[in-house]
């Protein structure tokens, strides 16, 4: 096979791989309404007290599981990730800790409704949760960088990220002490120090998908 044939074969392989990637429908940010609701109550405690509380809960209930939602929107013709900001510095994915014996999906739906839906709204089942994108394990609560491995023995905490597909339109109601922001995926990938190891890995985790931006 000549050079032209080799190049054509490579192009065909790349095109075939692209076709095999599952497309994610993303809608413009302008399609969504953003309102506010009563502030959430957060524990005001010192780091040492927080670590002690988490260790006590681990002793009582076992592995602590945190679930986070990957929500995507379009802005300026590029995919953006929705994040919650607390105190103008702490940034996190919508989600939270599971209750004892609560399933991943039930817990994530509960947390999404608590942080992003109107008070009293019964739309927990309306959240379309897709596949788990990744899992991180932490062997202790004193070290705040999670370990990306399924073989961590005696892990105390597991963080799971799930892809959540947004409909064409939706109303978001965010607690007054939180702010919902849209951050470009390209910015997140380059800002490990700002967003931490979990959030900054999301662009790479999404590389197996293609984005179908609708309505731009």
Question: What's the short story on this structure?
Answer:
The chain is of the alpha/beta class. The protein has 6 helices and 12 strands.
Residue share in β-strands = 25-35%
Query: What is the count of structural domains?
Result: 1
Q: What's the overall average pLDDT, rounded?
A: 86
Please name the CATH topology.
Nucleoside Triphosphate Pyrophosphohydrolase
Low-pLDDT parts are none
**Helical/strand content category:** alpha/beta
Give the overall silhouette: globular
State the helicity in percent bands: 25-40%
Cα end-to-end separation: 43 Å
Largest sheet: 4 strands, mixed
List the helices and strands in order.
Answer: HEEHEEEEEHEEEEHHHE
Strand element count: 12
CATH class placement: Alpha Beta
| Rg over CA atoms | 20 Å
Number of helices: 6
CATH evolutionary superfamily: Nucleoside Triphosphate Pyrophosphohydrolase
Strand order of the largest sheet: 7-3-9-8
Question: What CATH architecture do you see?
Answer: Alpha-Beta Complex
GO molecular function, one term: mRNA binding
Subunit structure: Homodimer. Component of the cleavage factor Im (CFIm) complex.
Main location: nucleus
InterPro entries: Cleav_polyA_spec_factor_su5, NUDIX_hydrolase-like_dom_sf, NUDIX_hydrolase_dom
List the helices and strands and how they pair.
Blueprint lengths: L2 H18 L1 E5 L5 E6 L9 H15 L2 E7 L1 E4 L2 E9 L3 E3 L2 E3 L6 H13 L11 E11 L18 E9 L4 E6 L2 E7 H5 L2 H8 L2 H4 L3 E5 L3
Parallel strand pairs: 1-12, 2-10, 3-9
Antiparallel strand pairs: 3-7, 4-5, 5-6, 5-11, 8-9
């Amino acid at each position: 096979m000549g050079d032209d044939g080799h190049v054509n074969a490579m192009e065909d392989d790349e095109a075939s791989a692209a076709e095999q990637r599952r497309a994610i429908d993303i809608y413009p940010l302008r399609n969504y309404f953003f309102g506010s609701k009563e502030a959430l109550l957060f524990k005001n405690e010192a780091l040492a007290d927080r670590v002690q509380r988490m260790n006590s809960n681990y002793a009582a209930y076992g592995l602590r599981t945190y679930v986070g939602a990957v929500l995507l929107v379009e802005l300026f013709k590029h995919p953006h990730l929705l994040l919650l900001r607390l105190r103008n510095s702490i940034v996190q994915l919508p989600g939270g800790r599971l209750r004892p014996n609560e399933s991943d999906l039930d817990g994530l739906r509960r947390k999404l409704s608590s942080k992003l839906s109107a008070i009293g709204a019964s739309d927990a089942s309306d959240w379309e949760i897709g596949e788990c994108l990744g899992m991180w394990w932490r062997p202790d609560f004193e070290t705040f960088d999670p370990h990306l491995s399924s073989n961590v023995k005696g892990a105390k905490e597991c963080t799971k990220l799930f892809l959540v597909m947004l409909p064409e339109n939706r109303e978001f109601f965010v607690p007054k002490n939180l702010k919902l922001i849209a951050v470009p995926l390209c910015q997140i990938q380059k800002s490990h120090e700002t967003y931490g190891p979990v959030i900054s890995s999301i662009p790479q985790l999404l590389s197996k998908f293609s984005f179908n931006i609708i309505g731009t």
